[in-house]
Amino acid sequence: MSEHTRREFIQRAAVGGVALFAVAKGWTLAKSPNQTVNFACIGVGGKGRSDMEDAARIGNIVAICDIDDNTLNEAGGIFPNAKKYNDFRKMLNEMGKDIDAVTVSTPDHTHAVAAGMAMNMGMHCFCQKPLTHSIWEARRLGEIAKKNKLATQMGNQGTANSGLRMNAALLRAGALGRVSEVHVWTNRPVWPQGNPRPAPKNPPPHVHWDLFLGPAKHRPYGDGYHPFSWRGWWDFGTGALGDMGCHTMNMPFMGLDLKNPTSVVAETSGHNGDSYPRWSIVHYEFPATRQRPAIKFTWYDGGKKVPAEWLDGERLADSGCLIIGDKGKLYSPGDNGGEGRLLGNAEFKTINFEESPGHMEELGRMIKDGKPAVSNFPDYASPLTEVVLLGNLAVFADGKKIEWDARRLVAKNAPELQEIVRHTYREGWVLL
C-alpha cells in the first residue's frame, strides 16, 4: 500500500462489523434500562476524581471515600449530596443497600480488598489499572465477578479506542504474517525509584495513615508516599510495569491473545526489595496457540528502549510498541496502542471490529442490559493483569528465570517468591 495509506490507516474505520473479541454470555441484569445506577467512589483524588466524574455520567454518586480529608472535602464540593467516608469498609457496611456499583481508584495495594469486598456484597465494580497488586488477587477478582455475574471493568481506557481495536484486528487478520516478537517500552517511572525510605515523621492531620496502609505491613509515614510516589514502593505500588503495562501492552494482548506465559526473566538496575529498580527489561515467553506461533515479548522501562534502527526510519517515541512478523512490522507510538504504522512489507487488510460507545459507557451498558464491557474482569482485565504482574515477579527475582505455571499460579523453580504471588494481609484486611 502507499506510504500515505500506511501512515494514515489507523483513521480508517470499518462500520457495522463483527466483534473483534469473544466475551462471556449469560450475565444477569441488576437494573432495568431506565433505573439509575447508584455509585460509591473509593479514592477520589487524581485519577479517582475523573473516574468519579465519569461514573456520574452514567449514574448517581451517593457516597465518596478517601483517606485524605482535603481530597475528600474537595470531592464533596462537587457532589454535595454524597455521604463522605475515610474507610471504605465502613462505607460499604453502612450504605450497602443503597449502592449498586463502586469505582476503586486507590493506590494499587488496596484495589483488591476494596473491589473484592464490594463485589462479595453484590456490587458492580470499576477498578483502576493494574487491577490488583498481586497475581493471585487478579485471578481472585475475576472469579468473584464471574461467580456473582457482576458488571466489571478495569480502567485501561484505550481498550475502548477504535484505533487500538483496529490494530488488534489487523494482527488477528495476519497483516504482519507470523508474529514472533513484541517489544513494548514506556517513559515511566516519572517518580523516584531505587531510593531508601524517607525519614519517619508524623503524618499531616488530614491524612489517615493507617487507612492508607490498609492491608500493607505497617511502616511510619514519610514524605514521598502520598499522594503519588507510592507507585515506586513494593508494598504500595507496582512500579513502571504496573502503572503502564495495562495500557501499553493492551493492544498486542488483545490482538495476539497474550495469556499464560511459560517463563519470564528480568534485567534490572538492582533493587533492595523495598523500592522498585530505576530501570528494568523483562523478557516473557508465550507458547504457540492454534492461531499464532510462540512469541517472545520484551518490556522496557526507566529509559530503556528498542534500537531506533528497528523502526525503518520512523521516530522513536518515548513510549510505544513494536510488533515484528515475517511479512513486516506494526509500530504504535505512545501509551495506548491507538496509533499504528505498518512497516516493511506488512499488508493492510480490510477488517471488521466492534466500536465502543465509550469506556465507562460500556460498564453502564453491562449493568443495565448485560452486554459485557471488553475489559471486564474474568475475560480480559484479570488475565492481562496477571501477565503484567508476572513481570514484576521477575523483577523481584532480578535475573533468575522464572518457570511459570499459569494454571496454578506457581513459580515452579522459585517457591521463595510465593509471597509476591499472594500477599499476607495485615490484620483487619481480607479478600475472600
Oligomer: single chain
Q: What profile does the largest beta sheet have? A: 9 strands, mixed
Shape: globular
The tally of helices reads 13
Please trace the helix and strand order, writing H or E for each element.
Answer: HEHEHEHEHEHEHEHHHEEEEEEHHEEH
Output the strand order for the largest sheet: 13-12-11-7-10-9-8-14-15
Beta-strand content bin: 15-25%
Number of strands: 15
Helical content stands at 25-40%
How would you sum up this structure, described in words?
The protein has 432 residues and is an alpha/beta fold. The protein contains 13 helices and 15 strands. A nine-stranded mixed sheet has the order 13-12-11-7-10-9-8-14-15. Strands 3-2-1-4-5-6 form a six-stranded parallel sheet, sandwiched between helices. The termini are far apart.
Features:
13 helices, nine-stranded mixed β-sheet, alpha/beta, 30% helix, six-stranded parallel β-sheet, single chain
